[in-house]
Amino acid sequence: MFKEFANPPIERKGKLLIYYGGKTGTVSLDEGDEPFQAMCLATLRKDGFVSLRAGADEGELITRPLLVTGRKLRVNVKGPLKVEVQDRDGVPIAGYTSNECDPLPEDGLDLVMRWQGNDLNRLLGTAIRLRFTLRNADLFSLRFTRD
Fold first, then answer.
1. Spatial contact of 136 and 79, defined as CB atoms under 8 Å apart
2. Are 48 and 85 in contact (CB under 8 A)?
3. 125 and 70 Cβ atoms separated by less than 8 Å
4. In which band, very low, low, confident or very high, does the pLDDT at 80 lie, cut at 50, 70 and 90?
5. What CA–CA distance (Å, rounded) separates 123 from 106?
6. How far apart are CA 103 and CA 140, in angstroms?
7. Could you tell me which residues come within 8 angstroms of residue 98 by beta carbon, excluding any fewer than 6 positions away?
8. Most Cβ neighbours (<10 Å): which of 12, 19, 82, 92?
9. CB distance 88 to 127 below 8 Å
10. Would you state the pLDDT for residue 23?
């Protein structure tokens, strides 16, 4: 039995390249023209399958409690974003409020969040909530890293 396999996406320069084939349908040669066939390419940003999107009105996302497993919080975002770090009960942690959040470039695949130049080193091993505020922006992913 013949099995068809899809190729995995190829990552290049912050984009995922997805090659696929398509055709207009099956037509027997007796009925006229052969079906049109094409090799196609779809592209999207890395981790760009889904996002949390805020429009012209400011949007907010508060995570469930997360364990800080790295010194840095990295985000994949398109548009302005601020992050506030809260304790597990939702109380902002001094030094990590949204007003203390350093501005980011408005588009990046792997941007490091900082609060007045500080990372999350002093919160390692602590359970926290993250409160994201966005306007005209997409948040694609977030992660903690040790570097």
1. yes
2. no
3. no
4. very high
5. 26
6. 18
7. 82, 83, 84, 92, 131, 133
8. 82
9. yes
10. 75
* Token couple for 125: 């091993």
* Residue-by-residue DSSP string for 14-26: TEEEEEEEEES--
Q: Which residue has the tokens 């941007």?
A: 111
Strands of the 107-113 sheet, one edge to the other: 52-54, 137-145, 72-78, 107-113
C-beta of residue 83 within 8 angstroms of C-beta of residue 144 = no
Please name the amino acid found at residue 29.
Answer: L
Residue-wise pLDDT tens digits, 1-33 = 445 666 788 999 989 998 888 777 666 656 666
Q: What tokens appear for 48 in the block?
A: 């760009």
Determine the Cα–Cα distance for residues 19 and 87; give it in Å rounded to an integer. 44
CA distances from 40 to 15, 21, 23, 35, 103 (A): 16, 6, 10, 16, 38
**pLDDT for 63:** 97
| Matching residue, tokens 């470039």 | 105
Report how far residue 22's alpha carbon sits from residue 3's, in angstroms, rounded to the nearest whole number: 17
Coil, strand or helix at 12: strand
